[in-house]
Each structure stands twice: as structure tokens, then as C-alpha cells.
Amino acid sequence: MSIDFTPDPHLYPFESRWFDSSAGRLHYVDEGTGPTIVMFHGNPAWSFLYRDIIVALRDRFRCIAIDYLGFGLSDHPENYGYTAAEHANTAGELLDKLDLRDFVVFGHDWGGPIGLHAAAARAGDVRGLILGNTWFWPTDTKLLRTYGRVLSLPPLRFAIRARTTFAEQLILRTTATKLDDEIMAHYRKPLPTPASRRAVAEFPRQLIAARRFLGQLAQDVPAKLGSKPTLLVWGMKDLAFRPSMLTRMQGVFPNHTTVPLPDAKHYIQEDAPEAIAEAIISVFG
Prior knowledge:
alpha/beta, 42% helix
């Protein structure tokens, strides 16, 4: 299944590009020239989340932002589980197709585990990391485990797929910035049917179900990526990804630069795009 939606070119002023992965057609943007940054989104977002950061950076950097299968403008294949491991593998296929060298991975929310998996498998080609309000180990906080268990219950999984309310409210309630109707339409319209919301409904379940995938990452990331220059940009008002998780990240990446975002909640790309772009230029420009 493909999505019949054309983003507003004023909000999303990018050329759409496509890659035929082994599981379906992936949408991505590839803007600008210079050092390469590959951007990985979380749930229920897509590359649209990075739009302001891309605009701010594309005169200095090559910015690649991927929509996983089931998100944004990418296909929604029927024979696909929408697991974190599957997303990491299909995104990795795109990285190999683009033949990237000396690139930086930017991961947020589920984009942390997915992007770090892709990076660990290609560690020799990774220049550095940008991580914000994310994690890469088996889910161990009470809040996230409870969230994952509750939203994995069949009635709630059905409710998530039945309407766009879950996706919209998740973004609205965990963003400090007031998002207008036009912006929210760009998060809602790529999810027009229950079938198109399978991926959104699967990610909460993955908080528990992806334990093996996350457990392997907990070993691979420090071993293969721990010495990489790392920029940590963290929304300090995020109730789920608290500052204690930032402290844990700092311990894994000794060569880190930390930029706290004091007024940002979870969706830091909506709340503090200018500060994030400035930090990226400072560390990797």
C-alpha cells in the first residue's frame, strides 16, 4: 500500500527520493552538500520532523532523512512486521545503496536504536553520532515498560489503528511548542486508514518485544561506537526520557558534547530546531 499525500512545499521544501528495499519502497530526502548526516525518526513521526533542521543545515551538510516502511511517504507492505530490527535492516539497505562514507547518524526516539544498529554494522564508515531523547538498551524504566505493556493489549492496539487520535495526541502532549493545524495535518494525513497505522501501533509493543534486539545493541554500541565523537541534544522536560538517561548516555560516549534543551519536551526537533542546528555546526561543521 502506498500513501496518496503530497506535503506542502512551503513546509517541506525537499525533493522526494525513493529506494526499492527488499521489503518495499522507502521514501527519503537527500538535501545539500558537505559532510553527511543521516536522520532517523521515531514514532509516530517521519522525515517531516527534521524539516527545520534540514533547512538550517543544507548549505553546510548533506542531510539524508529516511521514512521507515509504514511511516511518512514510504510504502506499507502487508508482509512486514514493522519491528525495530526490520526497520534497521531496510534502512541499512539504503545506506549501502548510497555507499556512504564518513557519515554522522542522528537518532531520536526509536531512531536511536534503529540508527545505532545501522551505524554499528558500518562502524568504520561512521564519523560520529547525534543522539536526542533516545536509548539503545533493553527497556528498563518503569514508565516505558508500563507504557509498552498497556499499549500492547489487543483492545488498545485496535484503538491505535482505528483512528489518528493516538498519533496526534502523542505529538501534541509531548511537544512544548504549539503546533498549528497545518503542521499537525502533516503528521495525520500519512495515516489515513487503519491499515496505514500498523507501524504506529507496533512500536509500543516493541518496547518489550524487541528485548533481544536492544540487548545486542547494548553490547555493540559501546564496543563499536563508544569512541565516536557524540553530540547529545536533550529535551530536559521530557517525562519519559529523563535526564538520568542522558547521564547514562554520557557514560557510554566519553567523547561527547552535551547540549541541554531546557524548555524542550520529547519532540526536540519541533521545540528547538535552531539550537540543535547550531550545536551540529559547532561539533561537526
